[in-house]
Specification:
Blueprint lengths: L38 H10 L2 H5 L18 H19 L3 H10 L8 H11 L8 H12 L13 H8 L17 H4 L15 H24 L14 H11 L5 H31 L4 H5 L10 H19 L2 H23 L8 H7 L2 H13 L3 H12 L6
Helix pairs in contact: 1-4, 3-4, 3-9, 3-11, 4-7, 4-9, 5-14, 9-11, 9-13, 10-11, 14-16, 14-17, 15-16
């Protein structure tokens, strides 16, 4: 039996600036509320049961799914982001369920093959108003998920939609009028009701930075596992190098895998601590009395400290050069782009080979509308499905 040491320092009551589920602005399609779940718990459950969430299991971030099952997928990444978001939300005294739901939903719009897939779909859609994965997430949860008898989408709460749309901050400023927004945003009929010129609520801000914490630290794990760089290669990095040295000093005979796991665990803790401390400093500075006050602030409430943010930029630069631009990763990116471009061009030119009922819609649609339908179809694919489908439609041997 282990000895309990101390207790976590958690708020005794919700923060005054939390998003209160009792004051939710509701859903755009009227429904009876659940007798057993809050609106935000219901949002979380709808995301988990969606087909888009299920397909994240074979969508990757850096490595293509068939390269091995040790690397993170969009699904495992989303689960890791949700755990970090809940931890931060609990320490700050805001709604954990809303933060978790935001984290689970934030990658629903990603196409197969990670950022390479997004870049290629955006290029394919250049003449048809482009492709943006954040905008596609809104499209998934408001239109493409078709599970309910009286409406398309998941009918998530206003707070969820607002947070997903503002994942990277306000959408509209004096320099970015509405027409500059991605088409998938502008297609949503209630977009302007989401207060696009303001920041998202505190839980959405937490989920966005939990995303950064997860992918920064877990890319260290995946990059070392793939042999793209070593622990020694990172010892010059601020914070990261110090943590790896401290693990080696404390456990000099520990194998590489456990050394990486322990270092990443500690690094995530440091990231979370800094995020909480800087957010608490801003709470003292701005004294927000509600979630609405958080939205109206001149800068985000949830943030890393300036010093820590500068230090983590060195890690991002390292990962960009040694991982994202590694020649092995570039080869996978090149193959992935060819797969998606050839599928897109084929389906746009020959909509009669699309599956029903997509075929009927695409055949009758004007070219720009057909392109968006094809884009939706491809964006929803998993890595393996896209590879198998490409093989079936382009490899003559599959006819034998």
């Amino acid at each position: 039996m282990s000895t309990k040491i101390g207790k976590p320092a958690l708020p005794e009551k919700p923060a005054v600036y939390t998003t209160r589920w009792q004051e939710s602005r509701g859903r755009f399609h009227e429904e009876h509320e659940s007798a057993t779940r809050t609106p935000f718990q219901r949002d979380r459950d709808r995301i988990i049961h969606s087909s888009g969430f299920r397909r994240l299991k074979q969508k990757t971030q850096v490595f293509v799914a068939h390269e091995g099952d040790h690397y993170r997928t969009r699904l495992t990444h989303s689960l890791e982001v949700s755990q970090i978001a809940r931890s931060v939300a609990r320490r700050l005294g805001v709604d954990e369920d809303l933060a978790e739901a935001m984290a689970l939903a934030h990658d629903l719009g990603h196409p197969p093959f990670g950022h390479a897939g997004e870049d290629q779909l955006d290029a394919c859609m250049e003449a048809y108003e482009g492709f943006d994965h954040n905008a596609q997430t809104l499209r998934v949860v408001t239109r493409l998920e078709q599970r309910y008898p009286t409406f398309d989408g998941l009918n998530l709460t206003w707070e969820m939609l607002e947070g997903l749309v503002k994942h990277n901050g306000p959408l509209v400023t004096a320099d970015t009028p509405m027409p500059a927004l991605p088409a998938a945003f502008r297609d949503f009929p209630h977009l302007e009701k989401l207060e696009l010129d303001q920041f998202a609520g505190p839980e959405a801000q937490i989920a966005a930075l939990a995303d950064d914490i997860a992918y920064n630290n877990h890319d260290i794990d995946d990059g070392i596992a793939a042999g793209l760089f070593s622990i020694d290669d990172m010892l010059h990095l601020p914070v990261v190098g110090d943590v790896f040295r401290s693990v080696r000093l404390e456990y000099p005979v520990l194998d590489q895998q456990r050394t990486v796991y322990e270092a990443v665990r500690r690094l995530i803790g440091l990231w979370i601590d800094d995020l909480v401390q800087e957010t608490e400093r801003r709470v003292q500075q701005y004294q927000p009395g509600s979630a609405a006050d958080v939205r109206a602030m001149p800068e985000p409430l949830v943030a890393f400290s300036e010093d820590f943010d500068l230090q983590q930029r060195a890690l991002r630069a390292f990962l960009y050069e040694r991982m994202y631009k590694h020649y092995k990763v570039n080869r996978m990116r090149s193959q992935a782009k060819r797969v998606l471009k050839e599928l897109f061009d084929l389906f746009l030119e020959e909509p009669d080979i699309l599956p029903p009922p997509l075929r009927q819609d695409a055949e009758q649609a004007p070219l720009d509308r057909r392109a968006r339908l094809v884009c939706d179809y491809i964006a929803g694919m998993t890595d393996n499905y896209a590879i198998d489908l490409h093989r079936k439609v382009f490899n003559l041997e599959s006819m034998i």
